[in-house]
């Protein structure tokens, strides 16, 4: 009887694994069909809504606006005081970057987010008088790259890179016209050929969108999902594109080993997450072991896309306020955010008692209605974990 039940259990697990793989194949097939049919689905908003398949996925964008966007309640006295402090720091002849990081950690007001991101990313100098000159030079340099390299996208050496970018752009979010712009292809292609050690890797296409949206917000007061970028003056479009390229480049400079051959940076971060969770919450860790769930099966995407596929874009933008305020926000602090994010779903995780259910949950976590409050709590927990473990790494290693 024991042997029979053991064989029955193993057979059932194999069936569930094949069922999970089959569902994954169906999802990929659905994405492919959406890509093929894209030209026919943009005729009208009503037609799009009627033709969409119902699928349990978290969209990249679920209204980009945050608490500081137009249409929000008037600022409180505290919010106005924070905004005034930012304006004071930014107006200084030499902005105190450490002080700017300190104030940015808990969120940057929408009105000053674009200039603050440019400063914190290292794209703009702290010296106010030099900023316009630097912007002019860097923007001209970027479009010099376009003139020098972009025509080579059809060359034999680069055509596979361009083809992959061309395929991935619609996948960033096929229902948001904003992200179907040729600008993204140019940014990603130029970055790829200027970084031959890694080249273009799927996932990088997501990382340009927060910068593009934030820099666009300087000129658009309403939600930008359906904004027609072509309506802006050409110089403005070019400036947004160049600034997005340089800031994304600065971000990727700090995590480039995530995208080199075999992506060793991600492999190491997933392993570190497993070790950390095993010390923080042994119940969750043992639950994964019991049902043979590997961290790589869900956390690879968390590291590769910096949680962008798990959160609405408005939350990613708020998260990146803090990442840019941290000394190694995108490379080091992100590990603790992922650990806190996993523990956030502790109850739901422990309630799942099968392999398929666990993976479906972990790959489709219900964050669609998240906003600044939820992200703030997530970051506070991540900071607590960092304080407990970052300076004593042996605490999370067995």
UniProtKB/TrEMBL annotation:
PROSITE patterns assigned: TBC_RABGAP
Q: Kindly give the SMART domains that the UniProt entry links to this protein.
A: TBC
Transmembrane segment boundaries:
16-40
- Does this UniProt record's set of keywords contain Protein transport? no
Q: Which GO terms describe its molecular function?
A: 14-3-3 protein binding; GTPase activator activity
Domain Rab-GAP TBC: from-to ranges = 107-327
Q: Which UniProt keywords apply?
A: GTPase activation, Membrane, Phosphoprotein, Transmembrane, Transmembrane helix
In the UniProt record, does the keyword Magnesium occur? no
Database matches in Pfam families: RabGAP-TBC
Looking up InterPro entries in the UniProt record yields: Rab-GAP-TBC_dom, Rab-GAP_TBC_sf
Job description of the protein: May act as a GTPase-activating protein for Rab family protein(s).
Protein name per UniProt: Rab-GAP TBC domain-containing protein
**Where does this protein come from, organism-wise?**
Anabas testudineus (Climbing perch)
Q: What is the lineage of its organism?
A: Eukaryota, Metazoa, Chordata, Craniata, Vertebrata
Name the gene.
TBC1D22B
């Amino acid at each position: 009887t024991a042997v029979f039940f053991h064989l029955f259990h193993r057979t059932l697990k194999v069936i569930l694994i094949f069922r999970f793989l089959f569902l994954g194949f169906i999802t990929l097939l659905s994405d492919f069909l959406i890509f093929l049919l894209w030209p026919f689905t943009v005729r009208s908003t009503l037609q799009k809504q009627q033709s969409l398949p119902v699928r349990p996925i978290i969209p990249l964008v679920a209204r980009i606006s945050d608490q500081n966007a137009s249409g929000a309640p008037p600022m409180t006295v505290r919010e106005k005081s924070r905004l005034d402090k930012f304006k004071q720091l930014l107006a200084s002849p030499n902005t105190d970057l450490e002080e700017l990081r300190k104030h940015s950690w808990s969120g940057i007001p929408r009105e000053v987010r674009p200039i603050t991101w440019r400063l914190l990313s290292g794209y703009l100098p702290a010296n106010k008088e030099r900023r316009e000159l630097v912007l002019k030079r860097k923007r001209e340099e970027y479009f010099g790259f376009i003139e020098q390299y972009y025509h080579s996208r059809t060359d034999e050496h680069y055509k596979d890179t361009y083809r992959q970018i061309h395929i991935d752009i619609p996948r960033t979010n096929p229902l948001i016209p904003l992200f179907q712009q040729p600008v993204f292809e140019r940014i990603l292609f130029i970055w790829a050929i200027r970084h031959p050690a890694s080249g273009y890797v799927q996932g990088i296409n997501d990382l340009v969108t927060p910068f593009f949206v934030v820099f666009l917000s300087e000129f658009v007061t309403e939600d930008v999902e359906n904004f027609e970028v072509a309506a802006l003056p050409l110089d403005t479009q070019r400036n947004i594109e160049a600034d997005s390229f340089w800031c994304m480049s600065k971000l990727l400079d700090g995590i480039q080993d995530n995208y080199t051959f075999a992506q060793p940076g991600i492999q190491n971060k997933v392993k570190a997450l497993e070790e950390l969770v095993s010390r923080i919450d042994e119940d969750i860790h043992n639950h994964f072991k019991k049902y043979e769930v590997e961290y790589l099966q869900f956390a690879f995407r968390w590291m590769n896309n910096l949680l962008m596929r798990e959160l609405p874009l408005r939350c990613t933008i708020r998260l990146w306020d803090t990442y840019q305020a941290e000394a190694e926000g995108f490379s080091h602090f992100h590990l603790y955010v992922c650990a806190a994010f996993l523990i956030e779903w502790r109850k739901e995780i422990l309630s799942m008692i099968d392999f398929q259910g666990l993976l479906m949950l972990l790959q489709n976590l219900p964050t669609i209605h998240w906003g600044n409050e939820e992200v703030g709590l997530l970051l506070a927990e991540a900071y607590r974990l960092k304080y407990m473990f970052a300076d004593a790494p042996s605490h999370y290693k067995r």
